[in-house]
Specification:
This is Regulatory protein DeoR. GO terms for molecular function: DNA-binding transcription factor activity. Helix content is 37%, strand content 27%. The protein is built from nine helices and eleven strands. A hairpin with a 5-residue loop joins strand 1 and strand 2. Helix 4 runs antiparallel to helix 5. It is globular, with a radius of gyration of 24 Å. The termini are far apart.
Length: 304
């Protein structure tokens, strides 16, 4: 029985207030029976989780209960505390604070040390981002529309009224997903491009969201995935390891053969340019031709 899954299940119940065994089983890719055993384990640890039957039933936590951390040892509790402390700096206040507070009352966290420090996002000190996160989270929870000034990729500023459904963090970038009245469709927006944002008094009615969700694929590209094969000099082995799964890499003497399935867009071009002069595009041929054109253009622009 993995402690990480048990704890994650508990946080999901706290966050969602009610969740079914089927939803948990699908999320963790285990059987419903395994989830039931996990719930039994949490219950035996003294956590009052009860199941409500019926169409709208599911697991939920007894109202007003404060989490007892006796099922964690001191080391495990400190690791979780470090994670929560740092998530609280970059996540919406209302989403993280109640969870974080449950850990503050446990004796396991006395005499905290610095064995684990997390810096998840270089933008955590930007007050504007923090303010917008908290405001959008509040609007989302209360089903209120928000009005914002938004800068698109062409640096054009538009006024948008959206119904915020979900806050999404991909890598170190925050997005808000919701229904945009200007486009009359669901859209996803980068919080870093929001100049101003206010909550409107007008509430919105929840609509069914499109499937699949935008975060199930590349957020910034409408292109389909393409097989890309790169030959990279081993001098960049450390850098490649930061961006590419080791399973997608084959080391051949002094070269690394990297195979990607990714949309060919500006992000991919910038990634490959970051590997110059230690990279060669093996596949597809047309991408190599386009890349050479861009290299030549860059050289012309930078001739002294």
């Amino acid at each position: 029985m993995k402690i990480d899954r048990l704890f994650s299940i508990l946080l999901m119940i706290i966050n969602k207030e009610k969740i079914t065994a089927k939803e948990l089983a699908e999320h963790y890719q285990v059987s419903v029976r395994t989830i039931q055993r996990d719930i039994d384990t949490l219950s035996m640890a003294g956590i009052p989780i009860y199941a409500e039957s019926g169409k709208n039933g599911g697991y939920q936590l007894l109202e007003g209960y404060k989490l007892d951390m006796n099922f964690l040892n001191t080391k495990e509790a400190k690791i979780i505390r470090a994670i929560l402390d740092n998530l609280e700096k970059i996540a919406p206040y209302l989403d993280m604070k109640t969870i974080s507070n449950k850990f503050s009352s446990t004796h396991l966290l006395d005499n905290q040390d610095n064995k684990l420090i997390m810096k998840l996002n270089p933008l955590i000190n930007e007050e504007n981002l923090k303010k917008h996160l908290e405001l959008i989270a509040k609007a989302r929870d209360n089903y209120h529309k928000i009005c914002m000034k938004y800068v698109d990729m062409n640096f054009q500023v538009t006024d948008r009224i959206i119904c915020p459904y979900t806050l999404v963090m991909m890598g170190t970038v925050w997005y808000v997903y919701g229904y945009c009245e200007l486009r009359e469709d669901f859209r996803i927006f980068k919080l870093s491009r929001i100049i101003e944002c206010i909550i409107l008094n007008e509430e919105f009615v929840v609509k069914e969201t499109p499937k699949p969700a935008p975060w199930d694929s590349n957020l910034d590209s409408s292109s389909e995935n393409t097989k890309v094969v790169l030959e990279v000099d081993r001098i960049l082995q450390g850098k490649i390891a930061d961006y590419v799964d080791y399973k997608d890499c084959i080391i051949e003497n002094d070269k690394i053969i990297v195979t990607l399935n990714f949309p060919i867009d500006e992000w991919l071009y910038s990634f490959i340019f970051g590997l110059v002069p230690y990279v060669k595009i093996l596949e597809p041929t047309w991408l190599r031709v386009e890349f050479i054109k861009r290299l030549n253009l860059a050289m012309k622009k930078n001739i002294l």
